[in-house]
Structure formats: C-alpha cells, structure tokens
C-alpha cells in the first residue's frame, strides 16, 4: 500500500540512507579484512571486527537520534500536562489512573509474579508528595489486583482530597503502609524483591531535601532492582544525575524526558497511552506505536558512544546493544511503509548474521 503521509516518505528515505550506509561499511570492512587476512590473519580479523563495530555504532547513533530526538524537556513536559488538563479537559486523577495502570502492566511484563521468589512477590513502593507519588499509589493498587504484594512507604502525605482518596483505596485493599523506612538496608533487601521509585517526577529540581536524600540513599544501598516512574528520583529532568538512583527499569510517561538519554538500565518502557494526536503533533512527539490494546510499549535503549574507560554499568549495558539492534529496526520498520519494510527485514537479517559470524558480540562485551 502506498504511503500518503509525507512524514512516512521521510522515514523511507532515512531507512534507505541507513541501509546504504550499512552496505558501504560492510563492503569496506570485507575488502580490508580480506587484504589483511592474507598477510596477517589475526590482524585482519581484528581490523574487520573493529571497522564493523564502529560502523554499527554510527548507524545506531542515527537510529538513536531518530527514536530519541523528541524527548521532552522540563518546560515542554509541564506545558503538555497543562494542555491535557485545560484544552483537552482531562482531570488529574484520570491521567494518574491511566499512568499508574500502564506502570503496573509494564512491571508485570518484565517481572512476572512467578519470578519474584522473596515473600510471595513482595514489592516496596516509595511514594513522594506530588503527582509522581500518586502514580505510585495507583500502580501499587493495580499490582495488588495482579497478585503481587505491594507495601507502600508514603512519608509525606498531601492534604489534597485526590491523594487522600488514593490512600484510602490502597488501605481498603489491605495494602500495608510503612511508618518508617528501616535503617538497615540489608533488612530492606531481605524483605522485598523490587523497589518502585515514585518519589519525584519531572518537576523536581535538585538537590533533594535531607529527609528524601536519606530515602534515596537507602534505596541505593538496598541493592534491589529499582523501577523508576517517569524520572529516576534525584535526577535533574534535563541532565540526569550519575550519582543518583540508577534504576534497572525506567517507565517514561507521556513521552521520554531528556534525562532518559542517561539511562543505561535493562528495560525502558513508555506508558500513558492518552496523548491526543493533535497534541503529539504540536509538540512534535514522534511516539512509538503501541501494540494492540497495550497501555505501554518497550523502547529500544539509547546507545552511549564507544569509550576506552567505561564503568561497569556502561559495560554491562553495552554488552546488550548488539542483541537489541533489531529492536531499533523494528521501531523504524513500523513507521515506514509495509512494502518497504520487507527490504529492511532482509537487510537486518544479513546484518545480524554478519555480526554473529564476526564475533562482534564478544568484542562489545
């Protein structure tokens, strides 16, 4: 079927350009490897691997720019929320319910209840005083309905009726509330499987107040996998914070924020399937297609540039890049014409075969 949307034509051109770049990279690498292999077999193979890896990195950067170039900064995120409330007549509790549900669904996909062996699926949900904390309350309620055992830590409850209602709903569903966070991080580790970080959202500006800085520190010290809702707590929404919480999973809401570029965890999801097309167009949000009736979608990870001295988290992240290249291609294919995507699939299959045969995965690790 022919594409009528000019934006789709642009995507076709982008994919074609990337395809051509791959072709050139691998042709050049193949020629040079062949020449050097005859003289010095080991040097030739190493050289080929290096060239293919650098070429792959360059193409990933292009795909990275395509997928992540529309991240929202702090002002844009605030404006989008305000327009949802005013022009599109959404209520705060309505969006909070959709956001919290999408978070619970995403968590259930990555961490099935059966895989959580400690205390029959026990999860600690740390909630802050703002809307991000409200998302956490809703998420906990849905996780309870899904069969998990959430426990809430809500140290500063607002006096607003909305948050009081959310608290009552959780209490009526027999979700326990902690009056304080144990000072012993090991006790936290032994009592739960996961920690959901719903302390601060995109309105946060560092540094955190002392009482919340202590909470963030305890979450980090626990050693448990952390799932951050929208923005990892302690991070500046536009620049991130390498010293703050480093979550294993990030669930962006509405659209990924700028700080998501600094996220090197294992799983990145987008939730909150409520953005009207006109609003997405106004703010140039190139949101990925949601599968079927799902309220969330997994995003391909951003790729850090190659560096000689990488810390362990970046090395661990890098080792997964090769195996997940196809995720970025799937995103591009879904936005391009179906007929054109057939050619992309053939090209992608050839790429993955080349990487496997060349041993790139072991090099990246």
From TrEMBL:
Binding positions for K(+) per the UniProt entry: 132, 197, 233
A Pfam family hit: YjeF_N
Reactions it catalyzes: (6R)-NADHX = (6S)-NADHX; (6R)-NADPHX = (6S)-NADPHX
Binding site for (6S)-NADPHX: 131-135, 201-207, 230
Annotated GO CC locations: mitochondrion
Domain of life the protein comes from: Eukaryota
Domain YjeF N-terminal positions: 77-287
Gene3D superfamilies hit by this protein: YjeF N-terminal domain
GO molecular function: metal ion binding; NAD(P)HX epimerase activity; nucleotide binding
EC number: 5.1.99.6
InterPro entries referenced in this protein's UniProt entry, alphabetically: YjeF_N_dom (IPR004443), YjeF_N_dom_sf (IPR036652), YJEFN_prot_NAXE-like (IPR032976)
Cofactor binding annotation: Binds 1 potassium ion per subunit.
Cofactor requirement: K(+)
PROSITE patterns: YJEF_N
UniProt keyword terms in alphabetical order: Isomerase, Metal-binding, NAD, NADP, Nucleotide-binding, Potassium
Keyword Nucleotide-binding: yes
Stated family: Belongs to the NnrE/AIBP family.
Purpose of the protein: Catalyzes the epimerization of the S- and R-forms of NAD(P)HX, a damaged form of NAD(P)H that is a result of enzymatic or heat-dependent hydration. This is a prerequisite for the S-specific NAD(P)H-hydrate dehydratase to allow the repair of both epimers of NAD(P)HX.
Identification of the protein by name: NAD(P)H-hydrate epimerase
Protein species of origin: Capitella teleta
